[in-house]
Amino acid sequence: MWSQSLIRRWLARVSQSQSTQQPRRQAPLVGKLETLEDRSVPAMLVYVDDDWVGTTPGADPDAAGPATAFGTDAFATIQAAIDKVSVGGTVIVNDGTYTEAITIPKNLSLLSVNGRATTTIQGLANLNTINVNPGSSGVTIGGVGKGFTIIGTDNNSPGLERAAVYFTGSHSNATIEDNEIRAGGEAGLVTEFGLAISNFVITGNEFSGTTFVGAKAGGSGFGTQFTEANVPRQLVVMGDGGGAVDAKATNVTFTNNVISGTAGGLNASNQEQGNNLVTLDVSNSTISGNTFDGTTTRFGTSLRVRRPGTTITGNIFNSDGLSVATGHLFTQNISQSLADLIADNTFDRAAYVQGQTTGTISNSLINLAAGAPANSVILATAGTFKGDIGVKADVTLQGAPSNASIIEGKVTFFTTADGATLDGFTVNPGVGKQGIYLNANVQGISVLNNIVTANGDEALETEGDVDNLTVSGNLFQGTTTGPLVYINGAASLGMANATSNVVISSNTFAGSVGGGTLLGLESSGGSITDNDFTGTTSYAALEIWASGHTVTGNTITPDGSGTGILISKNANSTGGLVLGLGNFVSGGIEAADGTELTLATDQSIVGNVSVGGKLEVKAAAVIDGDLSFGAMSNFAIDLGTDGKFSPVTVSGSLTIADGAKVGLAGTHVPTAGGKFTLIDAAGPATGNFNVGSPIGALELQQGHATEFNTVQLWADYSDGFQLANIDSAEVPSVLFVTSSPTNESYVPGDKFQIQVRFSERVNVTSVPRLALNNGATAIYTSGSGTNTLTFEYAVDLGQTTASLDYNSSSSLILLGGVFIRGAATPAQSANLTLPAPGTTGSLADTTNISIVAGAPVIQSITTPAGMGLYGPGSDIYIDVGFSSSVFLIGSPVLTTLQGNATYVSGSGTNTLRFVYRVLLASQSQDPLTVTGLALNGGSITNLAGESVVTNSGLFPTAFTGVVVGIPGPSVTGVSVTSPLGTYVNNQQLRIRVTFNETVQLTAGTVGLLLDFNGDNTPDATASLVSGLGTGSLTFNYTVVAPLNVSNIRVLGLSVSGGQLVSVLTGNAATTTFEPVTLQGVSINAPGTLVTGVSRGPFTPIGTYQDGQTIRIRVSFSATMLASGTPRLVLSNGGIATYSSGNGTGTLTFLYVVQPSDLATNDLRVTGFNFANGTLTPAVGNPPLDVSSLGAGITVPGVTIA
């Protein structure tokens, strides 16, 4: 019934609503009520209550209430009230369920008392629940807190479209607000197709229900929805179809709605059958702030828009109810591209084709990967994409930054996908499926920068013959019993062509594979570069069916007992495996019979090396373990043209089986009659001992046994070849002194290294010096703990020599009497005697190094310029220092990456000054980098006329911090483009930031930082709405209560995931500026407040003791929705539990006094406890502001004893 307090509150709300929201309607309301008694003319304000059924016409149905006479201004049905209300009047409906089919034939407002939670209109079969007749220009259905739940019904005839709310014919100025419009087998909201509608406001509603009946949808495809029964309808449809010109439907505001209904499912054949959830084919309209969270299947979308002038911003699109074949959004003819729509709205996950201005933003990668045009780039946002993906064309799948695009399924490249790329995803395939799989014969696939987690099967596997495969920058992890990554060579499948040209680079193999391998590679040709093998295996980190692979820069340190590198052989293996620069191998190497392994550069190998085929050594190698050769193996150490070779150091034992061949290879021409000798601790093992000391040797560190069996002679070179087992009792001694490169001329200013090689590892506890024959000294730099000590020589003036050597056999000098000692225990002081100068093993013997005098050389390149950005027209001075005074003639220049620097001054001194003037063409922002000195037809000489040495190790010299180029864009203004004034909850403040040139984002997002407290700390971020590609960006800030701000300050821009750059130059914009206070705008957005506390019913004034119940009423400034059992916190430690009042502005709580509660004569409500429930203001109201309780609000008249 209509209580007095309810009537007063409702009248106040209606009066305010009509004065602020409906100025076109007649007022004042109070005057109408005063003249309402006993009249027969239509009323402007009529009341409906289903409790009045059976009331005698003319009787006052609510006594002192607002209604006066049943049948005049009081009715039991909504339709009866509509029929009698005046044009422009208001129909007020009390709580209840009204089962009727309503027709609205005139302009009016249809409002409920307490909102949609308590007021329901249930439709009748085969009819529209609410039908608005043609020609209306001001129909309102619902309002904030005054809406309805409107339930549609099914229609038996598919040719007649029905809806919960249906506008027949042409209409304008309609408002549909704060309702739940629930489909019941037909549509939710429809305007008649092809007819004119304009200025509709549809806001704050929920569109729910199902647009077909039963568990199964009818038909297959929605093209038959008007001829076949139970084909899903659309939940909301407005307008007259797609087109590039303005529609008859125009200026629709569709904001802050929730779309939760269902427009699709499975049909009787268990095939997907669905329709679009919302179609708004309306021109010049706004779609903003909505949440699309509905369900559909087949080819439906959450939103379809196909007319120009419409903007889609600030919406939330969720995928939970969408099948993989559907889309979030389909557009045509609007100005926003798909990329704009991604930036302007929020998607839990989305994918689209880069560069498309219209089309579908999908919630899945499945259809795009299978059906996108060749050469497309498919961009995925952050989010989780479920289901297996099949790539069937030459497309690029590009994930979001930081691998935030997650594929929960398997990615398969089919044979039609030649050239396709998968870049930047996280792939979690699930149990027992490969993460990434390549079908046989697919070519040119790139797998880049992904994180792939195995779960019982390979992270990456190829079927065979997948030529030109690139796998780079990935992290492979997870657990499997087989290989973590397996590149199949196809031979095992009986294919004619094997996989070739595979590039494996910069990956991390971190999984756990048990008895499998981290990477199995069965291909011919290709490279394995800069990878980290850190996973766990008891078999091998890297298994290669070696066929011409190059392995460089890898760190192979498997966890477990597995081998570092396992080289296997099959019918397709041709060529060998080459270990190039920069590898570190732990776990050793095992090479099967018939394989080939080449150590092309210096190697460090921890673990045993077992050779079944050919091992060719072209550089120094350190093997911290055993080295063994099988009966069918070959061991070749390459000789240079001078007959010298690099040493191999083995810390463990050397075993050479019967039948193995050991010898020398390379380009050296042997001398006839030479002998080959193996020596161990007991003396020569075979053949004759060659007295000449070899330059290098295979060295077995002391304390290890050596087993030599019968050895076949493979080469017979006069230089000899020694496998030396150094007795632990021997004193470490110098074997030779050398440098690399061996044939070089150096000038003052150059630096190079000299190596002193000992017979075993030595420890250095001082800084040794090496005295040279030109009066110079080389200083020790490194090598302690090894058998090679490195010295550095910096060439200075006056140190010329035609053949560099040391002074004498005692030129290795220790300072302070500290000795170089051997690594064995007990340590032996090393014998520092060098080979006599000019004899075998001396520096002059092993090298041909000269120090030439005199031509001036560059010793320094500096600039007096300070750090900063130098724009067009700026001069930057560069000073070049030489080893002697120089004289300049003509116009030599310094070359830089940015252009030439011209001579300024300094001729006759040892420093020349040049100047570089920044050109307009220098658009990029890079450090000024000097790359060379060009004489340019002139000359730079010393006094003797010797020309300067223009080559220098100082080139290039980059002046870090001295940056040249055009400055990036900067902010020139900040202004408010929305109306000036005070903003309240949910209103949008629009701010424009102007730049001095056009800007764009390389990737990611940009926001505007706002300060509400004056402390230069961001309190909120305004979101970018538009402007990329122009000189000004527009941002929106949606006010979120509670908030009260008089000075809104803009602090700067925040860019995440990319850069804001100039469109013209690509240079980064300056995103910081002095804080700007926005003039003429403020925020006054209080939250929903606690307006009062009182005693509830059956709670008289008095004193209450343990076990007694007190009812406490709390009043709010808005309707509150209670869920669960929220509680009040009381000042005496007590707790009151929610009891009743849900959906009203006053809630009742029960407080049972407990023995532990404190006695008080001032019981106050001090807070809320939401551990067991929630309190939420009704839709359209701001959040609850608990601070309105202050220090507590007293429960009047209550004392706790």
Automatic annotation (TrEMBL):
It comes from the Bacteria. SUPFAM superfamilies: Pectin lyase-like (SSF51126). Gene3D superfamilies: Single-stranded right-handed beta-helix, Pectin lyase-like. InterPro entries: PbH1, Pectin_lyas_fold, Pectin_lyase_fold/virulence. This is Haemagluttinin:Filamentous haemagglutinin-like. It comes from Tuwongella immobilis.
